Amino acid sequence: MAIQVGDKLPSVEFKVMGEKGPESFSTDDLFAGKKVVLFAVPGAFTPGCSMTHLPGFVVKADEIKAKGVDSIICTAVNDAFVMDAWGKAQNAEEIIMAGDGNGAFAKAAGLELDLTAGGLGVRSKRYAMIVNDGTVELLNIDDKGIDKSSAETILAAL
Fold first, then answer.
1. Which one of the listed residues 49, 73, 77, 82 is annotated catalytic?
2. What sequence ranges are listed for the domain Thioredoxin (predicted)?
3. Which of 12, 55, 125, 139 sits at a 20 to 30 Å CA gap from 146?
């Protein structure tokens, strides 16, 4: 069952590229005491994710942060190297690119997406959430398209 509004985030580690390579950050490290927008994509460098979803958050990052958001985090079931390269290719300096390489967060949150039939393995559903001190305040999951989890939709909800 998927995580719900009012639930605490599961305790899982993400990998984020640091100066000396991938560094581990727990959900507590990233969310405790902060207001965070977390959005997930099925995969880095995929068409919808690269043409619309991440670019929307890149463009709207300052407006989102002006609404009292401490950080914006993008995650995908990709490793920290891929997330870092994708972030650089998309000029996503204001966004933490958090690798969920083994899908541990996606699975623990009940937001995994099985794309094995298409040769892509188990990924993350496309979603966006507003998290306040580790508790989910808003969760928008897209079954198709990017309407519910877009930067514009999240900005309007803040």
1. 49
2. 3-158
3. 12
